[in-house]
Amino acid sequence: MTAAWKAFATVDPFAGMNGSNPGQLQNLTGGQWTDVDTYRDDIVDPMNGEAFLQVPDTQNMAPFIEGLESCPKSGLHNPLRDNDRYVHLGAVCARSAALLATPEVEGFFTRLTQRVMPKSWQQCLAEVRVTRVFLENFAGDGVRFLARGFSNPGDHQGQESRGYRWPFGPVVVIAPFNFPLEIPALQTMGALFMGNRPLVKVDSKVSVVFDQFIRMLIHCGLDPADLDYVHCRGEKMGELISEAADTIRLAQFTGSSTVAERVAETLNGRVRLEDAGFDWKVIGPDYDPAWLDYVAWQCDEDAYNAAGQKCSAQSALFVHKNWAEHLLPKLRNLAARRSLDDLTVGPVLSWTNEQIKGHIDAVLAVEGTELLFGGQPLTGHTIPECFGAYEPTAIRVPLSAMQGEHFDVVARELFGPFQIVVTYGDGELDAVLDLLEQMQNHLTAAVVSADILFQQKVLGVTVNGTTYCGMRARTTGAPQNHWFGPSGDPRGAGIGTPEAISLTWSAHREIIGDNGPMPEGWETPPVR
Questions:
Q1: Enzyme catalytic residues
Q2: SS3 state at 216
Q3: How far apart are CA 273 and CA 485, in angstroms?
Q4: d(CA 314, CA 294)
Q5: Distance between CA 4 and CA 15 in Å, rounded?
Q6: Alpha-carbon gap, residue 24 to 40, rounded angstroms
Q7: Are the beta carbons of 413 and 276 closer than 8 angstroms?
């Protein structure tokens, strides 16, 4: 390791990031780490409210606009220019993956992630390992193969059409708080692989994690001038996007659907979006007591891991009546095991307790609903009031109530430990499918059944981009081994796989070589 990176990477984040010894972060622009004049005073320890990081409150965005303008539309590399960079980036991935596999560095990123986005150690460790496996997947020739094209014979001798994957050039990556390492790492690396020069913005509450990841990449050979990294408030980033709208060729946004639509409007649709989703799971009628404990465990994992703050979290559970009386009590018992002691529940970083209570009250005001479990704030903690802290909560909603005027209330996503439970009976599957058709976002879903005909009926009329199917079906999963992203929207971004990277971070370009002999009769006037 370089001395500069090793000095920070070997510090225990719990000891080194607190009020007495705050970490001061820097922007990366033009290949240099730079300081700013002002730092935010509202980035606090999510467990106790104390200041523990000095995050730049960047006001001067000109250097970052200049960075975008420095990159041509043809990118930093493409299949016909500077293509040695494909090989170079593969080598950076290999070295970074090897370093991330060492216990020291793996433990550092796991603990740092947990420090700013409190979730269980296993959840944080899984995020680090997914990122490492992603880098392993594209080590060596992996980056080169992403740019694979094709050729077709032409109309005559010497003519051939060739299809290329072409970069966009100056691009933007905007990443959320819930996966401080995985989301910005996979999307930024994908942008770089295809030849783009990204400007990266991560939610300031957690941006220290990607700061450290970039420093590791640079240590492993990445040119620091290949990307810019900015710490700033969301509204400031919005101003930059507006000012540089003619320069930005693509923005990849992960987060709130409301913000995503504003970015899309500003850039006239030049976006790839992985926005929030009211993700659903349908459990079919083929009840199997041998699978009961597992299905219950998976439902609990999907709904409440990371305190429900996964874009793929289970927001709505549609349970056939054959399962309901056996499954629902087990869900209550599993949720009751979760504790702040091991961070299997934790702070909710985008909803306050007041907002959570308001939504719970609004749903319970719908006739026929009932609180299955939870519904109360956590007690005996020091989590600051700017963050939520709530028990894992489930509300049962009658199918008939969800079908009517209350749909928008019930189907609103609460980005926290909360889910809607709906039971349905024989002959009511079509009503459930009608509700799924009304959903506005289509990220993940699950069909829990061993009945092939049932699976095909549900899958055939739904569009969620990442859909698990079978008795082990879940809504949350690691994206390094399969496509992860929404469907049903041409702006949808993918993450993780070669297909996701190619679709999100490159465009198709066709070049027709026409070098054959001069055609006979080319001067002959056309017959009228």
A1: 274, 311
A2: helix
A3: 9
A4: 16
A5: 18
A6: 10
A7: yes
